[in-house]
UniProtKB/TrEMBL annotation:
It comes from Streptomyces griseicoloratus. This is MFS transporter. The keyword DNA repair does not apply. GO terms for molecular function: carbohydrate:proton symporter activity. It is a multi-pass membrane protein.
């Protein structure tokens, strides 16, 4: 059952502020993960870092994101969205501050790992909180804005890194890391005071708290009977656990969310690496100017997300993701021509892929939040993130090997193949969730799962407890 006061509410100042605060996390993620790449140049010279040290520092964050996504969602479903929403940012602030004063390679490896854990955890935290607060008709667009913020953060990091390197030279790397600490503190202040998700409160049987949360955020008084009914509906269902993600209908949804995310992000990471070489033909591929080139790459990917934000709520999730994957494979297949292609064709194909990738990109966090119930919503988002990072890590590790041994043409054809796999996964498993309540989108097919006697007894006990407290 859903809460009509939320599902049918008009878009308010609260929703806009919450979207900005939630987007602060992905913005920081893009910023913090990108600024280290710029800072490493000065760090390597001053701290005499080896190539192995640089590789470990870069890989530590990816490993951390995998761990954070896997366990951050579980904690969010158990402890609540509001608590994890601020704890996560406190960790980011602390790690960013400590990074400014670190002086040994192992210290950076440890700090980048912890930062990655916080980054990976923030994905399911912020997205589940926003998904459970926004009206149905705006949910796809507002959740898509969060992933858009990641690219904006990455672009900002390269611009800030460029400016600081121009002003302070190689020794400015500590100021670059300090900028991340300042931005993290700003986002933390924005998040303080955010009310808890009413759906999570209802799921835990805390109907009175849910009523207060809605009154505080939306200025609406929801009859306690409506919330009791919603609580009864939640509690009468089987109580979902981590293992449920890998059983029955939820297994298919878990595979869908994780695989399409991985198939989207793996070639994208490859083009992020290949992009500066393309832009090098315009004189933006060497020295500090390469940071501006990297910023331009992020901006092109942002441009692709903007039309997709409108289409997911107007046309629907399924047609957007299916057609996007199908069209994304075309420019990658053309790039399979390799070095013999004219530079103009290469640039056009690169831009076409970046623009067309907006569809799957804005749905990376929408689908996991819509296809799973409240009890495991954040957990599902975290698992999808972790699966995607396997592809990101593999792409980052194997791309240089593929380029040297197979060549750029074959490497791009492999990317096209991965993209076609994403199309097949979407064609087979993508569901249409546009305009429906979270209760409707997360429901499994009738007869695929039934509550046990213990589940029904627990639901009855909780309903009785709700009535006593009310």
């Amino acid at each position: 059952m859903s809460i009509r006061a939320i599902d049918e509410a008009p878009l308010t100042t609260f929703h806009r502020k919450l979207t900005v605060a939630c987007a602060g996390g992905p913005f920081l993620d893009g910023y913090l993960l990108s600024i280290i790449g710029v800072a490493l140049i000065g760090m390597s010279n001053e701290l005499n870092l080896s190539a192995g040290d640089e590789g470990l520092i870069g890989a530590a964050a990816l490993v951390g994101i995998f761990v954070g996504g896997l366990f951050g969602g579980v904690l969010t479903d158990r402890l609540g969205r509001e608590a994890m929403y601020t704890i996560d940012l406190m960790v980011l602030v602390g790690v960013s501050v400590l990074s400014v004063f670190a002086g040994e390679s192992w210290q950076f490896v440890v700090l980048r790992f912890v930062l990655g854990v916080a980054v990976g955890a923030d994905y399911p935290i912020a997205t589940s909180l926003l998904a459970e607060w926004v009206p149905n008709r705006h949910r796809g667009r507002l959740l898509g804005i969060l992933i858009l913020a990641w690219y904006v953060g990455a672009a900002a990091a390269y611009v800030v890194g460029y400016v600081m390197a121009e002003i302070g030279g190689a020794g400015a790397w500590r100021w670059m890391l300090a900028s991340g600490a300042v931005l993290s503190a700003v986002v933390l202040l924005m998040r303080i005071g955010t009310p808890e998700s009413p759906l999570w409160l209802v799921n835990k049987g805390r109907t009175a708290d849910a009523q207060k949360s809605i009154e505080r955020a939306l200025g609406r008084t929801v009859p306690i009977d409506d919330l009791l009914a919603a609580s009864a509906a939640e509690q009468s269902m089987a109580q979902h656990r981590f293992r449920d993600l890998f059983q029955g209908a939820y297994l298919r949804r878990t595979l869908f969310c994780g695989l399409f995310y991985m198939c989207q992000i793996t070639p994208m990471f490859a083009l992020y690496t290949f992009g500066p070489a393309i832009l090098g033909s315009f004189g933006l591929g060497e020295g500090n100017a390469s940071n501006l080139g990297s910023a331009l790459i992020s901006i092109v990917f942002v441009a692709g997300c903007i039309p997709a934000l409108r289409l997911v709520d107007r046309v629907g999730r399924r047609p957007v993701i299916v057609w996007s994957f199908a069209l994304m494979a075309i420019p990658l297949a053309v790039l399979g021509g390799g070095d013999s292609l004219p530079i103009a064709v290469v640039i056009v194909c690169f831009c076409a892929y970046a623009l067309l990738s907006g569809g799957p990109t804005v749905l990376e966090w929408t689908y996991p939040n819509e296809l799973f119930p409240t009890g495991i919503r954040a957990t599902a988002g975290g698992v999808a993130t972790s699966i995607s990072r396997i592809g990101a890590a593999a792409g980052t590790l194997l791309l240089p090997i593929s380029l040297s041994r197979l060549g750029i043409g074959t490497t791009m054809l492999i990317g096209a193949g991965i993209t076609l796999l994403g199309w097949l996964v979407s064609l087979a498993w993508a569901e249409e969730t546009r305009g429906r309540t979270l209760a409707e989108t997360s429901a499994v097919p009738v007869g695929s799962r039934r509550p046990s006697a213990a589940d029904e007894k627990r639901g009855a006990d909780l309903r009785e407890s709700d009535l006593e407290r009310s």
